[in-house]
Amino acid sequence: MILTTNHLAAATLRQARLANIALGFCMRFVFGQLPSAAQLLMGLERRSTKHCNPGDHWLDEVCRDWLEGFGTRDIGFFELCTKFDSIEVWVDPQPNDQLVLVWLLDLLALTRRSRRS
User: Fold this and answer.
1) What is 5-56 written as a DSSP string?
2) What's the CA gap between 11 and 34, in Å, rounded?
3) How far, in Å, are 53, 67, 77, 84, 99 from residue 70 at the CA level?
4) The whole model's pTM is what?
5) Low-confidence ranges of the chain (pLDDT < 70)
6) Tens digit of pLDDT for each residue in 33-59?
7) Which of 20, 36, 67, 74 qualifies as a cystine partner to 47, CB 3.0-4.6 A?
8) Is the dihedral of CA 9, 11, 17, 23 positive or negative?
């Protein structure tokens, strides 16, 4: 799986067929008020009644057929990640993309540390 920090890059990689799945991981951190840590984590969970607003779930802007064979638009981020042997993160140099990368790396490090405990 390839995660990108924008949908255009994901679409380009999908067309190139470089991975089973290429998804845009498109959180917005540069403009407006930052979501709380709880909101960000909720957005990565399996879709539920908590995700009632557009943009509440990390896959809200993903087309159904992009996940074909691996899950639905309701799948949680970590649940989807467990379906792959490897995950690549492709990041653009734009400020928002860099902030998403820092947040994602911190999130993955926290997850890894909690699994060791």
Assistant:
1) SSHHHHHHHHHHT-SS-EEE-----SSSPPPPHHHHHHHHSPP-TT--STTS
2) 26
3) 24, 5, 12, 9, 27
4) 0.81
5) 111-117
6) 888 888 888 989 999 999 988 888 888
7) 74
8) positive
